[in-house]
Amino acid sequence: MNQDNGILFTAKKIGNATIKNRFIRSATFENAASQDGSIGEEYIKIYERLSKGQVGLIITGMVYTSGEGKSYHRQAGLHSDEAIAGFAAMNDMVHQNGSKIFAQLCHGGRQSMALGWRPPAPSVGMIDLTYRIFPRSMNNREILSAIKTFASAAKRAQKAGFDGIQIHAAHGYLISEFLSPYFNRRSDEWGGSTEKRFNFLKRVYEAMREAVGSTYPITAKINIEDHTPKAGLTIKESVEHIKGLVDLGIDAIEISCGTLSFSMFNQSRGNVPVAALAKVMIRPLQPFARLFLKTVYPEKKFVFYEDYNLWACDDVKPLLNDTPLMLVGGLRSYESMEKIVREQKADFVSMCRPFIRQPMIVKNWSNGDIKQLTCNNCNNCFGFVPLDESIRCNLNRSF
């Protein structure tokens, strides 16, 4: 393979940012920041490796916009001006290695291990056994405040030298919750219809755009299927939200699926790492936790197959006009990725777990090394998060 004639090694723009190839490191939560949200050597090394590996666009793991939206104890934040300098130094290094980097901005909503028993959500919900919380309904003041924090964090990202922003509107965090009829049962201006459920994301985008100007790239990651116990967001309603984003002027869309609370392994197909996840419990309770997890997450339900979100491209791509589409979800074969881009199913191929295992794979491919990805979808990498340890692959020495 040769980068001079392979479509995956052609450049393409996202807004005013030129991405040197079609490979995207999909936002992958690192769990490597300090407790106060600041970043240091452990966090920065992850992005150094990815940029040295010639990934065209690196999207950070989710970065919280305010203390009220923090999900995990070791999550990075752009919640204050003090955070700018650390990210600026990291971004300079990424740029020196030739990659572009976007900040994924997120409010955790009900999916939080850091805010205690009653985190904020669009609506009151049942007890969440994944996060061990009982979510409460946000009032209007809290909703408007959350919108402002997205705008403020976007401006900080711009000052820190990020090449753009991704709004995290997927995977069951706050914006995803507002979009989903499963999580959002409001009957005011923020819920009750497809249009009203879109209102929070619309207001977030508009506030961000006002903060960063008309040319700075703003993108969004959105579910095409929630996989919640009862009806949540599905492709039928998701395409309406995507149309709304295109009309607003979004610079790219990434499609994904699943929620951390109820469908983590619909989002990341393959093995269910019950032994790793059960370690969050004290040792005497771990056997019971493993049994519970095996019952809740039967492996036969989450069998891995390649390109498992590809089916949605036929519904989404025609809506986008010239707006680029990023596809994530089980992309493992170089030949398949090349076909997806060549046939214009998507404009960029986006990967998460493979870059945990092989951060240098794009560079190897560009040099003609046709080794295939070796991620075996064991999902043990995610078992470190509940333990407040950095996410990493058990099959190699580090992220």
Quickly list its features.
399 residues; alpha/beta; eight-stranded parallel β-barrel; 13 helices; 13 strands; globular
Explained architecture:
- The chain is α/β, with parallel strands linked by helices.
- The chain has 13 helices and 13 strands.
- Strand 1 (12-14) and strand 2 (17-19) form a beta hairpin.
- It is globular and about 50 Å long.
- The two termini are 26 Å apart.
Shape: globular
Q: What name goes with the CATH superfamily?
A: Aldolase class I
Low-pLDDT runs: none
Helix tally equals 13
Helix content: 25-40%
Portion in beta strands: 5-15%
Number of domains: 1
How far is it from the N-terminal to the C-terminal residue, by CA? 26 Å
The CATH architecture is Alpha-Beta Barrel
Rg value: 20 Å
Give a topology summary:
Blueprint: E1 12-14, E2 17-19, E3 23-25, H1 41-52, E4 57-59, E5 63-64, H2 84-96, E6 100-106, E7 120-121, E8 136-137, H3 140-159, E9 164-169, H4 174-179, H5 194-212, E10 218-223, H6 235-248, E11 252-256, H7 264-267, H8 274-278, H9 286-296, H10 313-316, E12 325-328, H11 334-342, E13 348-351, H12 353-357, H13 361-366
Parallel strand pairs: 3-4, 3-13, 4-6, 5-6, 6-9, 7-8, 9-10, 10-11, 11-12, 12-13
Antiparallel strand pairs: 1-2
Write a concise synopsis of the structure shown.
This protein has 399 residues and is of the alpha/beta class. The chain contains 13 helices and 13 strands.
